[in-house]
Amino acid sequence: MTAAVLPTRPTAAERRAAPSLAAAVRDLDARRARSRQRMIGASEVGECRRRAAYRIARRRPTNPRTGLPAFLGTELHRGVLRALRRQYGGLTEVALAGEQVKGRCDWWHAPVVEDLKTTSRGGFERVLTRGVPAKHWFQVALYAWLLRTGQTHDRRLPVGTECGVEGVRLRYLSRDSGEDVVFEADYDPLLTAEAILWLTEVYATVEDDGVDAVPRDGFGPGVDAMCDWCPFLDLCWGPPVDPETEGDLSRQSRLTVTEEDYVEAVEDYDRWRAAEGEARRHKEYARERLRGRSGPAGELHCEWSGGNVRTQVDKDAAVERLVELGEIVPTRRTRSPRSIRVTRAASAE
Ligand code: SF4
User: Fold this and answer.
1) Residue 180 within a domain
2) CA of 69 to the centre of ligand 1 (A)
3) Phi and psi for 108 in degrees, rounded to 5?
4) Which atom of ligand 1 is nearest to the CA of 50?
5) Considering the domain boundaries, does residue 191 fall inside one?
6) For position 73, what pLDDT does the model report?
7) Which of 232, 182, 190, 241 lies closest to 212, judged by CA?
8) pLDDT tens digit string along 48-58?
9) Per residue in 113-132, is it b (16+ CB within 10 Å) or e — as a string?
């Protein structure tokens, strides 16, 4: 008779060990990925056409894990929505589904639909300085359109109920400081049409020419954060570079195959370097013209900060002093940054 193989009993130390939060989040993410409906979400419209194409073509995400920071963001998001609903009423997390796009609108508080974004300190600062990205306006415009046309998929709303929406709102909440900033606009059917056109073009290209014909709107890992966090990163740019076999290459460098690719990349580098220098010159000129001035300026606001006297370690003096005392100066080995130099080739006589 074969003896039953029983699982090893956990030791006392294993039973006492704190459950791993990271493992729980990984498991949740994996389950979410499996159940993910492969239709494009309104939050992805206007972001990257290639990513939208992968969704449309039902490609399996290669990098589905979002990790602990995103998990914390989701939980915070849920808590804030609950507080808004309890305080002011309305419906939160309303499921919407059109023919080509689905979504879950954060808060419908007639006659306005709101989307809440919890952001890092950097993200919050970016919104304050650069304003709302177009894709976020697309997203709320699509929610408004789906609600207005009764394209809902929510047991709290009878199918086909046309919900009154006259305005759209985006609320950004900084996870670090708890500050929030709100941007509002009237519902704009033209913006909705633009978002639908964006989506229709992606669907058409996938159908006619396949996914790989749809352009990438991100510049890849290490350059664009949206690629670093993209669920299709490996599918789009290939697996991570293996330093053993590929040395100092990058995933983007795999696109530079022919001599023409190489020449085009060098020319691109040269063009953007010139544009960067020119932009910096203009910015510095405007900055000098603003010295001593602050306050509102139309839709913008200007203020200066810093300039205070502070005490810092004088590294040179500290090293000198250590040497005087006969101490060994602490060092660490680092790799110097790789630098690139593109110059004009001398013309032939
Ligand atoms: S990795 Fe970047 S370029 Fe590729 S699909 Fe994702 S966001 Fe788009």
Assistant:
1) yes
2) 20
3) -110, 110
4) 5
5) yes
6) 84
7) 232
8) 999 999 999 99
9) bbbbbbbeeebbeebeeeee
Residues 288-315 have a mean pLDDT of 93
pLDDT tens digits for 10-48?
Answer: 566 655 666 555 565 565 555 454 334 357 899 999 999
Closest to 138 measured CA to CA, from 162, 183, 168: 168
pTM of the predicted model as reported, rounded to 2 decimal places? 0.79
Counting the structural domains of the chain, the total is 2
Q: Which two tokens stand for residue 203?
A: 């669907």
Q: Which two tokens stand for residue 5?
A: 């193989």
The answer to whether residue 188 is domain-embedded is yes
325 assigned to some structural domain = no
Ligand 1 atom with the smallest distance to the CA of 224 is 2
Contact 142, 45 (CB under 8 A): yes
Say if residue 95 is in the same domain as residue 169.
yes
Beta strands, E only, 130-256: 167-174, 180-186
20 exposed, middle or buried (CB, 10 Å; 0-12, 13-18, 19+)?
exposed
Ligand 1 centroid, distance to 100 Cα (angstroms): 20
**Probe ligand 1: pick from 63, 217, 223, max atoms within 8 Å of CB?**
217
Percent of the chain with pLDDT over 70: 88
Residue 129: name the closest of 282, 300, 278, 291 by CA.
300
- In this structure, are 264 and 198 located in the same domain? no
State how far the Cα of 318 lies from the Cα of 296, in Å rounded to an integer: 45
pLDDT in tens, 243-270: 888 888 999 999 999 999 999 999 999 9
CA–centroid distance, 169 to ligand 1, in Å, is 27
Q: Whose CA is closest to 199, among 103, 132, 107?
A: 103
With a CB cutoff of 8 Å and minimum separation 6, the contacts of 156 are: 91, 94
> Which residues does a 6 A CB cutoff place in the pocket of ligand 1?
48, 50-51, 216-218, 226-227, 230, 232-233, 236-237
Question: In which domain, by residue range, is 207 found?
Answer: 21-213
